[in-house]
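Backbone shape codes:
***
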Amino acid sequence: MDYKKEIRALQKHRRNYYPALSRLMDLHHHGGPGDLPKELINDAEALILLELIDIGYLDENALIIRRRFDDIVGLVYNGDYPLTESGEKFFDSERHTLKARLADLAGKLRRR
């Protein structure tokens, strides 16, 4: 097993955390009462969000996981504040990196 290769793969996968958290925070801040609850199971980031719940970055009460037997068939955001304390620390640290700041700027420009 090549450990350096595995660590690089894990670091590359971890880069997907910030966009998923950012999108969920956007739903929290900009989602109106008519927009919630929001079904997220069809999103590409659904597996990342489930992983973030397992890690402890997302509050499990903010997302409702529907299961049928052992399969996950639904993921719904109910509008509660999604981040835990450790999730806030991660989100803030990632937001302050240059790459994340540029991504935020590009996202704001796309919305205009």
The CA atoms of residues 62 and 99 lie 28 Å apart. DSSP finds five helices and three strands in the chain. The radius of gyration is 15 Å.
